[in-house]
Amino acid sequence: MNVHDSEKMAGILEKEGYEITEDRGSADLIVYNTCSIREKAEQKFMSDLGRLKSAKSLRPGLRIAVAGCIAQQMGGQLLKRAPFVDYVLGPQNIHSLSTMAREAKTGEVATMDNPDATLLELPASRKEGNRAWVSIMYGCNNFCTYCIVPYTRGRETSRPGENIIKEISGLAAQGFKEVTLLGQNVNSYESDIGFVELLRKINEIDGLRRIRFVTNHPRNLSGELAEAIGTLDKVCEHIHLPLQSGSDSILKAMNRKYSFKEYMKCIELLRKYTPDIAITSDIIAGFPGESAEDHKSTINAIKSIQYDGLFAFRYSQRPGTKACEMDGHLEDELKQERLMEILDTQDAITLRKNQALEGSMVEIMLETEPGDESGKAAGRTRSNKLVNISDNSGSSSKDEFITVRVTRGNKHSLLAETVRD
Ligand code: 5AD
Ligand code: SF4
C-alpha cells in the first residue's frame, strides 16, 4: 500500500513538472513515505532523516517532505524535532503535495481527517511492467488492539466502483495484465456495489489476465467470495488471510472478532470451491500475555492449516493502541524465540509444498525490471509463487505468459525450465 501511495505522490509531482531521480544529491525535493506499523520502521526513518540535516545546510534550496503514517502521527511535532523538514503530510492528504510543491512555502502540515479521499482521483506514476496496484478502499474500522493503522489511515471508506473499473480498464488498455486491488480489508469493500460484484466486473475487462487482492479479514469472508475465487477465471487461486494467533484468548485480546474454529471454517470454505488454493497469512509472535500454551496453539494452527507462505512479526508496542497499555509484555528474547519457531515451522511446510510441485507444469507471468536488458528470467504462478527460470533461452521472447516445468522446489521459490515442443 505504501509503495502504491508513493506512486501516487510521484504522479502528483510529475504533474507539477518534477521528475524522479535516484540520486539524492541532485534532488530539489526529497519525499519520505513512512510506515509506523512496527517500531523498527520508525527507527530506520528517524536515523535516515537525521542524515539529511547537513544536506539541507549545504543546499538551502532543498525541500524535504515527510509523508505516510509517521507524519500523520507526529504532525507538527516532527517540524519541532527536525526543523529542516519543510512539509508533513498524512496518508489521507497525499493530494496536498501538489500545492506544497507549487507554493514552496515551508513548515506546512496536512494531517486532517479526509473521509472524501476515496473520491479523489490521484494520478499514479507506475513502473513499467505487467502488474499494477489499484486502491479500492482506504482506512480501517477494525481496531485490532495491537494496530496503529485505524489511527493513521482513518475510518474505512470505499472508492466508487465506477472509478475503479475506469482506472483498471485504462490500465488494461495500456498493456497491464495483472491488477492487485488494495485495501486494509478489501473483503469488506462496499460502495454502490459489493466486493464480489466488483470482482465480477473487473473479470470482464478485456486484456486483463490476472486479478489479485490484499488484504482480507476472516470476519468478512463470505461464501459468495469463496465461490467467486473458484469460478471467476481471472481471479487468481490465492488468498492472503491473516490469522495473527492460533489461540482463542489471544485472538480475543487482539479484538480480531473470530475464534480459531471460525477461521478454520473460512479455510474449509475456500478449499471447497478452490481445492488447490494457495493460502498465506500474517502471525504476531509474543502478543502481551501470550503463554507458552497460546504459542503452542499458533504452532499447531500453522501445522494444521498448511499455509503456502507466512509473514510473521515480533509484537511491537505502538503507543496509542490498546495493547500497548496491557499487562504482560514479553521480553524481546522470548518473542524472538517464538518468532523463529513460527518461521521454522512454516519453512518446512513451504519447502515440502514446493518440492511436491517438482515435475509439474505451471503458467507464469514474466516479471521485467524496467530497463533490464538481460532477458526475462523470473515470474510468478497464479498462486503467487516466485519462479526462477534456469535456462534463459526460450524466455527471451516477447511473451508475457509462458508455461514452464518445475525442476526444483526451494524454500522461498521454485526453479523451472522452459518447455520446447
Ligand atoms: N506488532 C507486530 N506486528 C503488527 N502488525 C500490525 N501491527 C503490529 C504490531 N504492533 C502486523 C499484523 C498485520 C501486518 C500487516 O502487520 O500481522 O496483519
Ligand atoms: Fe490493523 Fe486490524 Fe485494521 Fe488490519 S484489520 S489494518 S491489523 S486494525
Summarize the structure.
This protein is an alpha/beta fold.
Describe the structure.
By secondary structure, the protein is an alpha/beta fold. Helices cover 35% and strands 19% of the residues. The chain is built from 14 helices and 17 strands. The protein has helices at 2-15, 39-50, 52-58, 69-74, 76-81, 97-103, 149-153, 161-174, 195-203, 223-231, 248-253, 260-273, 292-305, 332-356, and strands at residues 29-34, 63-68, 87-89, 108-110, 131-135, 137-138, 157-158, 178-182, 210-214, 238-240, 278-285, 309-314, 361-366, 378-380, 386-389, 401-409, 414-418. The strands form 5 sheets. A 5-stranded mixed barrel has the order 13-14-15-17-16. A 4-stranded parallel β-sheet has the order 1-2-3-4, with helices on both faces. Strands 5-8-9 form a 3-stranded parallel β-sheet, covered by helices on one side. A hairpin with a 5-residue loop joins strand 14 (378-380) and strand 15. Helix 13 (292-305) runs parallel beside helix 14 (332-356). It is globular. The two termini are 41 Å apart. The model has no long low-confidence stretch (mean pLDDT 93). It binds 5'-deoxyadenosine (5AD) and iron/sulfur cluster (SF4). Iron/sulfur cluster is lined by residues 140, 142-144, 147, 149-150, 184-185, 217. Iron/sulfur cluster binds next to helix 7.
